[in-house]
Specification:
This protein is an alpha/beta fold. Helices cover 44% and strands 24% of the residues. It contains eleven helices and eleven strands. The strands form two sheets. Strands 3, 4, 5, 6, 7, 8, 9, 10 and 11 form a nine-stranded mixed sheet that branches. It has a two-stranded antiparallel sheet with strand order 1-2. Helix 1 crosses helix 2 and helix 1 crosses helix 4. The protein is globular and about 70 Å long.
Length: 284
């Protein structure tokens, strides 16, 4: 099996769909199907079960896919070590970033990094912090950009404190939230963020909001607030418009300290030895 066979099996095991796998690998579906049949003939057994609802790994398929993924991981580590022998910063930098940091903070940092180190390839995945830290534990990322208080024993660098605000086009003080008929708009996030918001709300108001709306993304939440549909608690990093016509009311805890979300850069000590990783850590 050549390395592209490993990549095919890895991607197909993720998607469990020939069409989506073909699109991701930029090949035609018939060519992909023929390639898979060739791999299965090589192993002498079906690796996937096809059905009208999609595909499933067979018992043999699970073994072969794990072998493929282990091989890809070993090749990646070998490439990193070879690249680190040169004086130039090159190789692949694999980042797993919390979505908010990936949307509002990371692009400007990556712009500087790519300009300074054009020979480095960037691999980026975004999602909730609780999901992104799994990429670090599994060896699928060199660097994690995480929100909150990540449980991490390796290298850890505080990037910034991000204050939280109650935001609305009409409410000019926090007490107004208990007198309005407008809904409290929330966006989906990891459980730690929800817990922080809920704890602050109960400490401050004692009773839950009368009406709520839950949306899938922070930008959707923000745009609904900007259009006067409701109010929300949003991180300061997402509120950068100049001259915006809305109120930003900072949140404070019971001791009068600003309520914020910390953003961290984390990585393993082994990853920090790679030139492309060290260069990013120094720049961030």
């Amino acid at each position: 099996m050549v390395i592209t066979d490993f990549e095919l099996l890895d991607t197909l095991a993720e998607e469990l769909n020939l069409r989506k796998t073909a699109e991701r690998m930029f090949v035609s579906q018939p060519a992909l199907s023929q390639r898979l049949q060739s791999i299965e003939r090589e192993w002498g057994t079906p690796l996937f079960i096809r059905s009208s609802k999609g595909m499933m790994l067979t018992e043999a398929g699970e073994i072969v896919v794990q072998y493929a993924r282990d091989s890809l991981r070993l090749k990646s580590k070998a490439r990193e070590k070879v690249d680190s022998l040169t004086h130039d910063v090159q190789g692949t930098l694999k980042i797993a970033s919390a979505s908010i940091a990936g949307q509002y903070w990371l692009p400007s940092v990556l712009k500087k990094y790519v300009a300074a180190y054009p020979n480095v390839k960037i691999s980026l995945v975004t999602g909730w912090s609780s999901e992104m830290i799994e990429n670090l534990y599994n060896g699928n990322a060199h660097i994690g950009i995480l929100r909150g208080s990540p449980d991490w024993s390796g290298y850890k660098k505080l990037l910034f404190n991000d204050p939280l605000y109650l935001v609305d086009t009409e409410l000019s003080q926090l007490s107004d939230a208990m007198d309005t008929d407008k809904p409290f708009i929330l966006f989906k996030s990891d459980s730690n963020y929800y817990r922080e918001i809920q704890n602050w709300w109960i400490r401050h108001y004692s009773i839950p909001p009368t009406r709520t709306i839950l949306v899938d993304q922070i930008e959707t939440c923000k745009q609904m607030v900007m259009n006067g549909i409701g109010y929300a608690i949003l991180p300061g990093i997402s509120l950068t418009e100049e001259g915006a016509s809305y109120y930003k009311l900072p949140l404070f805890d019971k001791d009068g300290e600003a309520v914020d979300r910390k953003t961290w850069l984390v990585c393993s000590e082994a990853s920090l030895e790679l030139r492309q990783v060290k260069a990013f850590v120094d720049l961030a």
